[in-house]
Amino acid sequence: MPVETILSVENISKSFGKIKAVNQLSFEVGKGHVFGILGPNGSGKTTTLSMLLGLIPPDHGMFSWFGQPPSNESRKRIGSVIESPNFFPYLDAVTNLKIVADIKNKPYDDVDEVLQLSGLHERRFSKFRTFSFGMRQRLALASALLGKPEVMILDEPTNGLDPQGIAQIRELISLVASRGTTILLASHLLDEVQKICNHVLVLQKGVMLFCGQVQEVLSVSDSIEMAAADMRGLTAAVKEIPGYTSYTETAGIIQVHFSTVVTPSDINAFLHQKGIILSHLSEKKRSLEQHFLELLHENP
Ligand code: ATP
Question: Under CATH, which architecture does the 5-217 domain have?
Answer without folding.
Answer: 3-Layer(aba) Sandwich (3.40)
